């Protein structure tokens, strides 16, 4: 049977992991975690590391599998880097939850993310990522980001790999940090999504069909070809046929799909709407918590930030929680909780990526969002 996918979004915001005692305990536990322990390079080298939660254990993902995620699982991703003309090692930690992951795995991923954060002395930027709503920062790590159906066994719930079912995938250029489109996202979609602006892959198991929309980019076509080549290499006996929209022989693609559908114009595909950014302040300076709108649109600026409080910046595709260096422990602890509640009360997508930024840490990503969007 399928995994129990009734994990609760409100239980993935890390808000309850804040006491000093818990932090000291997690740092000690983190130092004993083999997945990022001695000889792994974590905390001492630049690079990218990905782990999958398997029966409550943190298991390294093989590097040749980076960029490939399963909807039945939960992952932790660490990106460590240095800035130009600096030797200081900076970190971003993401925990990614698939649509079909179990509550067990989601909870383990959240807790282990905080444990890794404490192991790295609380300096990393933390990101919560939900399938289908990944942050631009995460997508920028991969030339191709894909989500496949399946997962590993969990300690509480029985999980068996389902029989193969044909699937239609979209290969689409993805905006990443800085607004550039240097990455693609591969997702499963319905045939109603077919349009002239993207590339689609129909995977029937041993036969794969790549269909290139008339207005799809050369970059998307190349990345789709690389993707199906990877599937061929994995399966050994799979073969691919490629068609351009309008080709006479594209009938083979439609027949395999189960019938031809109307191809939408590229300009009818809904793009991300223009959104007015908003900056909120979270403070309990007056004895109780107050969550107030400080500014919106062009009035939002870094000059409004106050080291004594916590601020939440909403730029639509992501929400940032900025922790002032003098914010008290309760403000610090509840910042992520208020960000999640904000999404809920405003009727916004509850799976929107949330990132926690420390004033004393690296916050280039936050500054870019503050000034650009």
UniProtKB/TrEMBL annotation:
Keyword Transferase: no
One Pfam family this sequence matches: Gelsolin
Coiled coil: none
InterPro entries membership: ADF-H/Gelsolin-like_dom_sf (IPR029006), Gelsolin-like_dom (IPR007123), Villin/Gelsolin (IPR007122)
Top-rank taxon, per record: Eukaryota
Organism the protein comes from: Lobosporangium transversale
GO molecular function annotation: actin filament binding
Gene Ontology annotations for the cellular component aspect, listed alphabetically: actin cytoskeleton; cytoplasm
Protein name: Severin
């Amino acid at each position: 049977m399928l995994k129990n996918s009734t994990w609760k979004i409100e239980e993935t915001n890390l808000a309850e992991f804040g006491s000093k005692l818990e932090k000291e305990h997690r740092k000690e536990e983190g130092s004993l975690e083999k997945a990022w322990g001695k000889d792994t390079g974590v905390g001492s080298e630049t690079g990218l590391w990905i782990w999958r939660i398997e029966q409550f254990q943190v298991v390294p993902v093989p590097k040749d599998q980076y960029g490939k995620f399963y909807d039945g699982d939960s992952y932790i991703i660490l990106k460590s880097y240095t800035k130009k003309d600096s030797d200081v090692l900076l970190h971003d930690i993401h925990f990614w939850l698939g649509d079909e992951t179990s509550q067990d795995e989601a909870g383990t991923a959240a807790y282990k993310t905080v444990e890794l954060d404490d192991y790295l002395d609380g300096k990393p930027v933390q990101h919560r990522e939900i399938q289908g709503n990944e942050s631009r920062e995460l997508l920028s790590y991969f030339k191709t980001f894909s989500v496949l159906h399946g997962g590993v066994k969990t300690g509480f719930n029985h999980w068996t790999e389902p029989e193969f079912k044909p699937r239609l995938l979209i290969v689409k250029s993805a905006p990443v940090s800085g607004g550039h489109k240097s990455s693609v996202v591969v997702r499963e979609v319905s045939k109603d999504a077919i349009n002239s602006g993207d590339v689609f892959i129909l995977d029937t198991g041993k036969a794969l069909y790549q269909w290139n929309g008339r207005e799809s980019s050369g970059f998307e076509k190349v990345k789709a070809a690389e993707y199906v080549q990877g599937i061929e290499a994995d399966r050994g006996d799979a073969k691919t046929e490629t068609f351009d929209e309008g080709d006479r022989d594209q009938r083979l693609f439609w027949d395999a799909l189960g019938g031809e559908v109307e191809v939408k114009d590229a300009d009818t595909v809904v793009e991300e709407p223009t959104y007015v950014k908003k900056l909120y302040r979270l403070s309990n300076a007056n004895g109780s918590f107050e969550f107030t709108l400080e500014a919106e649109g062009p009035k939002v600026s870094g000059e409004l930030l106050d080291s004594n409080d916590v601020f939440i910046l909403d730029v639509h595709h992501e929400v940032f929680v900025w922790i002032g260096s003098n914010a008290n422990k309760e403000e610090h602890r509840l910042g992520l909780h208020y960000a999640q509640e904000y999404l809920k009360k405003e009727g916004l997508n509850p799976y929107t990526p949330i990132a926690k930024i420390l004033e004393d840490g690296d916050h280039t990503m936050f500054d870019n969002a503050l000034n650009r969007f």
